[in-house]
Amino acid sequence: MTRYGLIGRNLEHSFSPTYFNKKFAREGIADHSYKLLELDTLKGLMDEVSREGLAGFNVTIPFKEKIINQLDELDAVARKVGAVNTVKVHDGKLYGYNTDIYGFHESLKPFIKPDRKALILGTGGAAKAVGYVLRELNIEHRFVSRTPGFTNEIGYDNLDVFTIRDHQLIINTTPLGMYPYNEGFPPIPYHLITPEHVLYDLIYNPPETVFMKKGKDKGATVLNGQKMLELQAERSWEIWQAPGLEV
Ligand code: NAP
Predict the structure, then answer these.
(1) d(CA 175, ligand 1 centre) in Å
(2) Backbone angles phi, psi at 114, to 5 degrees
């Protein structure tokens, strides 16, 4: 049996076990399994990995940054972003990767237009991954924060008609609107949204958030985080399946 898992907290509604176990059944690799591993802390991580016999695992909130200290090596992208969501166990060592970057990059491709600038709502781990991809793509962007500090950050109260007009790609990386708090939404001036805008919500549960509904009401193109999630999972799988560390 080859075992994989997801390490994090409050995992009961996670997408990954269903996704991977269905994939294993569909592809006839019944000797593979994927399970949830709720951890309070990362202390004793290697013991847990050995006890469970994991060949690889995903990492989620709140460990994507903290896990770095526990790893033997990081790939170049994970090192630059400072966050890991995929770990491969190889010869008893732990190697960290960031497949959120790949998932976000690939899912964004159909929505990239010359001169389209972006606003990233939130400044957490997912916002860092999104910012990294936008930088790589030379897409000008600003972060929207409740407590703006850095020069490329702006407060929600300062989102005026010019800012919204000039930033036609708006990406929600806050948890506002995520299950079970479905009624939440980021406080942006939705009345200024137009059919030229793209509202991308990283949330995938519920599949249509209030942020997306409000954008749709103004004629904007909207998408949720499902595609990104599937792409990052498939990329993790490729990493685990590769014979060595280069993929
Ligand atoms: P996080 O580290 O907790 O950061 C979220 C950021 O949102 C915070 O830094 C904060 O920025 C802002 N925020 C938090 N609570 C808020 C509130 N009550 N009101 C306004 N802003 C608030 O979380 P994360 O790891 O970045 O994940 C964020 C979301 O992305 C989650 O919903 C997660 O499920 C989703 N996600 C999806 C995928 C995918 O594959 N689709 C992958 C990764 C993450 P400020 O303090 O600067 O305002």
Answers:
(1) 5
(2) -55, 140
The 3-state secondary structure of 146-176 reads CCCCCCCEEEHHHCCHHHHHHCCEEEECCCC
Residues 23-63 have pLDDT tens digits of: 999 999 989 999 999 999 999 899 999 999 999 999 998 99
For 102, list phi and psi in degrees, rounded to 5: -60, -45
Verify whether residue 66 is a known catalytic residue.
no
Q: Please give the structure tokens belonging to residue 27.
A: 């592809």
Residues in Cβ contact with 36 at an 8 Å cutoff, skipping those fewer than 6 apart: 5, 6, 11, 12, 14, 17
Pocket of ligand 1 (CB under 6 A): 61, 100, 103, 122-127, 145-147, 173-176, 178, 202-204, 225, 228-229, 232
> If you ran DSSP here, which 8-state letter would residue 109 be given?
G
What is the model's pLDDT at position 246?
67
Give residue-wise pLDDT tens across range 85-98: 999 999 999 999 99
Residue reference for tokens 């400044």: 123
Nearest ligand 1 atom to the CA of 153 is: 47
Per-residue confidence band for 171, with pLDDT thresholds at 50, 70 and 90: very high
